[in-house]
Amino acid sequence: MYLIVVGLNHKTAPVEIREKLSFPEHSLAEALAEVKKIKAVRGCAILSTCNRTEVYAAVLDVEQGLRGIREFLARRCRLSASEIQNYLYNYTLFDVINHLFRVASGLDSMILGETQILGQVRRAYEIACELGATNGVLNTLFLRAITVGKRVRTETEIDRNAVSISYAAVELAKQIFEDGIEGRSVLIVGAGKMSELTAKHLVANGVSTVLVSNRSYDRAVCLAKVFGGKAVKFDELFTYMETADIVISATAATHYILKPQDIENVMKKRNNKKMFIIDIAVPRDVDPAVGSIEGVSLYDIDDLKNVVDSNLSQREKEARKAEKIIKNEIDEFWKWLSSQFATPTIAALKKRGEEIKQKEITRAFNRLGNLTDREKKVISSMANSIVNQLLHDPVIQLKHYAPTHQGHLYTEILQKLFNLDVPGQKILEGQTGQPQSGDLQAERAAAGHGQAGQSHTG
């Protein structure tokens, strides 16, 4: 049984291609059933997020499996096989393990170390299990990947620091308000995408009231609906600013719209109660002098970018620690997977030797005629010794090379040299290339699908 993956992500395909290959949960039953029909496929799972779509499979024939999945994806997005090939990547065998472990750990994400992907990997696996699409090898791969992702986040700080402008603003707000931002109110000036993203993060972190003010009142109404907030007419901006704890400004104005005198008047009516202003506009909306007003904390997009750059540097440092964890986990998993190649091959080789030995002993006895029991025992012992000695070195060498990254090649060569028929294993010429889980459903699925291997807890 061989592992393969075919997919695309934010690095290889634009959004107009990625959206064509998106698989909402309600469509996965049909999609997995179609992949399962590919002749070589014995188990499969589909990971589909806004930034990637990947089809993982355990197959009997690597080339047949890759070709079948590429054709499936081409049909899905209504492109020719040659057109979609420009956007796809595929990995086989050892590289599949490395890829999925890095994905689950957040090392292959658009935002380094992001945490959402681990839950998405888990959900993709659970759905595939529920639909009966996986098999033992794939179960072990995904459960190990989930454990690795948890280990990386537990043993490193890769997800501790904000690395997006909008989220950095939220982290700064938490620092400014000593008792947190839960229950605070936010006023959005302008209806731009960055303002919306920042407000989204603030609401997710407990902000209770959202006010939206824009020169186009209709756009303010639309954005306010997104957060269950209230639209404010632009000429009432400063009145409502008197009650806001956080102000996000991102208009298309070519001049300052928040000036020191206006903010001083607002702060007097607030009795100098703290106000956090985030100026994301370019050109800036807020006169820099506003930052010197007592009680006002002002940050522009460069301030936020400096925070992001510093945090990203820290995440990259933690990513290097994560890579070491992944390497160790890959080595352990590969040893287990390699045994799935080598053990049945060794058994088939010994069976072939036994069949030849018995055939030739029977032929010799028939030709020699009447033999004493002692003579038969001597001949049988000699035949047995010859076969054992001939097979000794191939078996020892295969056991030695099996845990290496090229172990599958030695297995294949041995199968071809001795013309062995090993059930569940076939690879075309020239092709190279029991974990613990906190999720009860995943554990049950693994128990019912031949889980194997050992793991660290994560």
Give a verbal description of the structure:
Residues 321-420 form the Tetrapyrrole biosynthesis glutamyl-tRNA reductase dimerisation domain. Its EC number is 1.2.1.70. The active site is at residue 50. With 458 residues, this protein is α/β, with parallel strands linked by helices. The chain has three domains: 2-160 and 314-330, Beta Polymerase, domain 2 (2-Layer Sandwich), CATH 3.30.460; 165-304, 3-Layer(aba) Sandwich (Rossmann fold), CATH 3.40.50; 335-424, no CATH class. It has 16 helices and ten strands. It has a six-stranded parallel β-sheet. It has a four-stranded antiparallel β-sheet with strand order 2-3-1-4, sandwiched between helices. Helix 8 crosses helix 9. The longest helix is centred in the C-terminal third of the chain and has 68 residues, at 301-368. It is elongated. It starts with a strand and ends in an 11-residue tail after the last helix. Residues 426-458 have low confidence and may be disordered.
